[in-house]
Amino acid sequence: MNLPPKTARIILAAMNSKPLYVVVLFCIQVLSATAADKIEGAFGKKLGELFDVTSAVGQSQLTDGTPMYEFTPTNAFRSLKKYYVFVTPTTKKIYSIWGTGPTENTETGKKEQALIMEILQEKYGEKSKPGLLESIVDADIVDQGNRYVMSKVSGFSDVTIDVRYYDRDLEQLAEKERIAEEAKKVDKKGL
Predict the structure, then answer these.
(1) Sign, Cα dihedral of 65, 66, 67, 72
(2) 5-14 and 18-34 helices, crossing angle to 10°
(3) 116 vs 77: CA distance, rounded Å
(4) Which letter does DSSP use for residue 146 in this model?
(5) Which of the four pLDDT bands, split at 50, 70 and 90, describes residue 135?
(6) pTM
(7) What gap in Å lies between CA 184 and CA 78, rounded to an integer?
(8) In this structure, are residues 68 and 47 in contact, taking their beta carbons and an 8 Å threshold?
(9) Average pLDDT of 104-124?
């Protein structure tokens, strides 16, 4: 474990006092055991990274018209078969990364979701307490403030499992850029 120089000096000084040394070592072990990785991205893509939309292997869109760019992951996960990024319209920064895949049924999907959440919690920290929306849509979230990751099981006859990474600031930037682009296309004289 790499420690900042000041922390290392404090530990070395504390080694002269055995009781303090034991307390310091215990604190370091607790802190390192509970420290979570920062949510940076997944499947070989990073949130905030520039994405060349011409490199997409496919394109789709959400029901509201938001484009989804399919990519080939460098780090795939067993139950996820398709991978997408969402990018800010003008600056082309990745603000969301999705992996999705079919499951046999809801029960199988929930078992896979439990595995995924266990892995995500080991990596990023405890999942958030479910709100009303998460309870309704079978979603679990690990939230780190500006960034979060969600796993979700959805569908009735065609059940899917999704893992979705988000950056809230970049998501807001995407909406600002979308509105600015749309504003250029409309005749403002009627307002």
Answers:
(1) negative
(2) 140
(3) 9
(4) S
(5) low
(6) 0.79
(7) 43
(8) no
(9) 96
